[in-house]
């Protein structure tokens, strides 16, 4: 039978979940009522260095005509200049900034439907900055600003042996903090070692002593851009894990709500 303290704790978790869902709903409704002819699903994306990343830019479906004719698409980086231009059904790359040659493209089939998102290959740290996506089409003209941020992040691998639970992530930048929690949300004592594997990029090895079989623990690796929440359930034969990535938005309060939402759902799941 649950104690009074447990009842209070789970009641608070439930309230956090409800409040987080309410805030997210309000923000979703606000964005859905935007009258802009050009939008982005994420104006502050975080790209993983060395991997491909898509910058979102599109004309909302509700304001498209039955036969959308995209006249021109232009992408530029504010501190450099033009990085991609698409017109009359084909790329027009005269004047393209050299560091984006062969690394940037749109998808012609998607362009015909009003989606002019840009694929940026093998993201570099120098790619960080403000991008402007401009569209001229049969429904008018518009543009949107996107602030690309870069980081390095990886999901940790888990290991359990002799009552010791370890979480090891190969690459993180900026240097993160690590926090362990039990399934009721209590912060646990653990030791963490960082090793610089290249300029400013760290590997992470965190160790939790006295871990128990059949218990579930949460390992949170986080910096100011990315949070990786890994749920680790110790079984009789090893450890099962799953990782959720959360990327920071303009509001750190909203990030906190997301974390509370995930933590609350995990806690409720284990109570049930």
Give the neighbour order of strands across the main sheet.
1-9-8-3-4-5
Shape: elongated
Unreliably modeled segments: 4-10, 26-35, 250-272
The whole-angstrom Rg is 23 Å
Helix/strand/pairing category: alpha+beta
Strand count, sense and barrel status of the largest sheet are:
6 strands, mixed
**N- to C-terminal distance:** 13 Å
Q: How many runs of DSSP E, i.e. beta strands?
A: 18
Number of helices: 3
Amount of helix:
10-25%
Strand content: 35-45%
Order of helices and strands: HEEEEEEHEEEEEEEEEEEEH
Mean of the pLDDT scores? 83
Topology:
Blueprint: H1 4-32, E1 46-48, E2 53-55, E3 70-77, E4 81-87, E5 90-91, E6 104-105, H2 108-111, E7 118-120, E8 129-137, E9 140-151, E10 157-161, E11 164-172, E12 177-182, E13 187-188, E14 191-198, E15 201-208, E16 216-222, E17 226-234, E18 239-247, H3 252-271
Helix pairs in contact: 1-3
């Amino acid at each position: 039978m649950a104690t009074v303290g447990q009842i209070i704790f789970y009641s608070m978790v439930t309230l956090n979940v409800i409040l987080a869902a309410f805030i997210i709903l309000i923000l979703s409704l606000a964005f859905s009522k935007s009258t802009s002819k050009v939008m982005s699903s994420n104006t502050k994306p975080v790209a993983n260095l060395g991997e491909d990343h898509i910058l979102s830019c599109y004309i909302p479906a509700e304001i498209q005509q039955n036969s959308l004719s995209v006249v021109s698409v232009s992408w530029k980086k504010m501190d450099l200049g033009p990085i991609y231009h698409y017109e009359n059904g084909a790329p027009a790359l005269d004047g393209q900034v050299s560091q984006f040659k062969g690394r940037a493209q749109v998808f012609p089939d998607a362009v015909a439907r009003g989606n002019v998102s840009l694929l940026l290959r093998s993201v570099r740290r120098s790619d960080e900055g403000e991008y402007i996506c401009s569209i001229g089409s049969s429904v008018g003209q518009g543009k949107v600003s996107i602030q690309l941020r870069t980081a390095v992040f990886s999901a940790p691998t888990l290991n359990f042996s002799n009552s010791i639970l370890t979480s090891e992530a190969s690459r993180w930048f900026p240097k993160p903090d690590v926090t362990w929690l039990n399934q009721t949300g209590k912060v646990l004592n653990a030791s963490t070692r960082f090793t610089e594997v290249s300029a400013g990029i760290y590997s992470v090895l965190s160790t939790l002593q006295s871990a128990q079989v059949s218990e579930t623990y949460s390992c949170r690796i986080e910096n100011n851009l990315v949070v990786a929440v890994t749920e680790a359930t110790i079984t009789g034969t090893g450890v099962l894990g799953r990782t959720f990535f959360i990327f920071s938005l303009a509001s750190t309060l909203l990030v906190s709500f997301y974390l509370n939402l995930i933590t609350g759902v995990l806690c409720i799941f284990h109570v049930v």
